[in-house]
Amino acid sequence: MLEIVLISTLNGILYGMLLFLMASGLTVIFSMMGVLNFAHASFYMLGAFFGFEISRHVGFWPGLVVAPFAVALIGMAVERYGLRQVHKHGHVAELLFTFGLTFVIQEVVQMIWGKLPVDYRVPPSLDFPAFTIFATNYPAFKMFELLTSIAIFAALLLIVKRTRVGLVVQAALSHPEMVGMLGHNVGRVFMLVFGVGAGLAAVAGVIAGPALVTQANMAASLGPILFVIVVVGGLGSLSGAFVASLLIGLVQTFAVAINLSMSDIFGGTPLAGVMSVWFSDIWSVTVAQIAPILPYLLLVMILIFRPRGLMGNRES
Amino acid sequence: MKKAFTTAALALSVLGFAAMPASAADTLKIGYVDPLSGGGAAAGQIGLNQLNYIAEQVNAKGGVMGKQVEIIPYDNKLDPQVSLVQVQKAIDQGVHIVVQGNGSSVAAAVSDFIKKFNSRNHGKEVVQINHAAIDPSLTNDKCSYWHFAFDANVNIKVEAMTNFMKANDAIKKVYLIDQDYSFGHSVAKAAEAKLKAEGSSIELVGNEFVPLQKVTDFSPYVAKIKASGADSVLTANWGNDLQLLIKAAGDAGLDVNWYTFYAGLAGTPTAIKQAGLADKVFQITEGVNNIDYQPMQDAVKAYIAKYPDSPIYYPRLFNAMGMVFKAVEEAGSDDPVKFVPKLEGMKYVDFIDGKEGFMRADDHQYFQTMYISGLGPLGEKQPFDEEGTGWGWKVASSVAVEDTIVPTTCQMERP
Q: Which of A108, A189, B44, B217 is the most exposed place for a label (fewest CB within 10 A)?
């Protein structure tokens, strides 16, 4: 029992931090620009493929630095020449624009790297078990993933809450004209924010690429869960996204460990006969089986009972 | 500008008209209806490469009955509805041989459609060459005279795999983990029945289902397998669900043997190498490149030289096309009404090992020698690695044709 609890907690935290790593850029862009960036997962994929390409020539570590910068530049170009043009037509146009972008990036990646997965490896310097609990190894690379995620959270929080840059960015969101009058270039601020968001997605890609599978459909398979995190955490709240990532990681991991089904709970009671007929479709479905659906259930619950999310401070 | 466009359009359409009848008259058209975009595109593209290769080879030798073979691809996006539209399109363009494989739901829809089409359009009959869909219902309760299955169906594979596992004394505790959809459930059900049958010394310690292609983090599942004390895992997972599972197991240092159906699919050998699981992952297929059979090895080398970026192929597709061409030549006609009787019951020398297989006339299921192979570092006379990993598939055991035969409930309606 202790073994299951301890290992599930560890796995849950590790998975939660991976989710936060992936969702942080999405939250940044949303909280500071009010743009729900559908192409976020595509920037994540670009980061993974750039990281892979660079790692083939000069190794993993240069890739971790160069790939996010390259993707950030692409992100800034997208904001400057694409998003800013459609911005005047409102949020729907922005959504559709980023949505369309996902297909463009997907096709480009397929053209360059093909449809098959690429062999993106964990760097040899981190390719060893960091520690062993109950005969289960925890690779050093996962620890690195965890630390990066926490470092990014701390750095973002500091910048937004404690620096002048953060102040200007926040002001530009609610009072762009006023900020402009005060001599700040609002356009450039937005461009930089979008670049940072895309760059963060790429950091996640470079790190998750070797841990998961780097292939042209990785954006599509990641997409929905990130929106769950942002919405559950509270739209635009960095701390909310952090808490939501942990919550979802833990809930999902613990649920997988539970083999209970309705037939186990009510099987011996007088109600068993009636219930097995009424709930025939889900009578013997275990909690473990529905584990990956739980985040979406959580999303629905949050939208109904607390639309502003766990830690969000506005309704939409 | 506008004028230039009109001229170009006109020229193109005239050219198109001129080109069409010429090619229609003396080619053997084969419609390939499989995913060429979206999630299944990688698998679909491999099949298309291979068909084009086969056509080139046959055409260089003068074609089939003097006719050149023409492969026409139709992208079905792995969607049954789209597939039917594409099959109709293929028929309209003069195709009588439809090659399709990915997705049992697609295969079932196409089979049903062709059955109805043929009963209403005498003289225009179409035949379905299924190279990959292995839902047993296709050759049992939903069998069709116009459908031929060239891959061993789920029942055959489970039968062969569980017989192999039972014969292996080192296997005592088995964990089942499958994807939560019809195929995963049919494998789990068949495997459970076999492993729990009388005389089996194997204990089933887990029977897990994971949602199809939705899980990113498999470490909780790996923790569960470890806690169960299993020494072997039997799984029909494919794609991401197998790659991520194996990588998570490698990360956690889970020491079990893996018995799979789809570890040979694109990307999975790479994941197995990354996880460092040498000689621990096994698959059941109709054969692997490292079987010591020279004609096959030569053919595969030539194929890989042609497609160095995608050095993967399906042995059964070579069998399928070889048998169709043989049937057409024996019948002296490319009309399915004439050549289908030749295909029924045909004996054929398998591409992969030179051993004889046969197409059972009762249900149109092809039977062939099956192989259980493990991935690991290569030895002598094993020239082929996978995906540049340096590791290749090595035969661990083979199951003779007569030991793969399972009963069928098919009651074939013949025209």
A: A108
Tens digit of each residue's pLDDT (9 = 90 or more) over A7-37: 889 999 999 999 999 899 998 888 778 788 8
Nearest CA in chain B to A218: B240
Which of A117, A136, A225 lies closest to B252 in CB terms?
A136
For residue A290, what is the nearest residue in chain B, using CA coordinates? B211
A285: nearest CA partner in chain B: B209
- CA dist list (Å): A194 to A23, A33, A180: 14, 8, 18
pLDDT band at A75 (very low <50, low <70, confident <90, very high): very high
Better-predicted residue by pLDDT, B198 or B49:
B49
Query: B254 contacts in A (CB within 8 Å)?
Result: 136
Residue A277 identity: V
Q: Point out the residue among B209, B252, B266 whose CB comes nearest to the CB of A116.
A: B266
B chain contacts of residue A288, beta-carbon cutoff 8 Å: 208, 224
Chain A closest-CA separation from residue B274 CA (Å): 7
How much is the average pLDDT of B377-403?
89
For residue B77, the distance in angstroms to the closest alpha carbon of chain A comes to: 14
Query: Which tokens is B361 given?
Result: 């006339």
Every domain of chain B with CATH number 3.40.50.2300 lies at: 27-152+305-367, 155-285+370-403
What is the structure's pLDDT at B103? 85
**In 10 A of CB A216, how many CB atoms?**
25
d(CA B400, CA A48): 45
| Fold classification of B155-285+370-403 (topology level) | Rossmann fold (3.40.50)
Q: Are B129 and B98 in contact (CB under 8 A)?
A: yes
Please state which of the four CATH numbers 3.20.20.80, 3.40.50.2300, 1.10.3210.10, 3.30.499.10 is assigned to the domain occupying B27-152+305-367.
Answer: 3.40.50.2300
pLDDT of residue A32: 78
pTM value is: 0.85
How many structural domains comprise chain A? 1
* Alpha-carbon gap, residue B180 to B238, rounded angstroms: 12
pLDDT in tens, B146-187: 999 999 999 999 988 988 888 888 899 999 999 988 888 889
SS3 content of chain B, % helix, strand, coil (to 5): 45, 20, 35
Q: Which of B207, B216, B274, B312 to mutate to test the interface with A (most CBs of A within 10 A)?
A: B216
B1-27: pLDDT as tens digits: 445 555 555 444 444 444 444 444 579
Distance from CA of B74 to the nearest CA of A (A): 18
Which range of residues forms the domain containing residue A207? 2-220
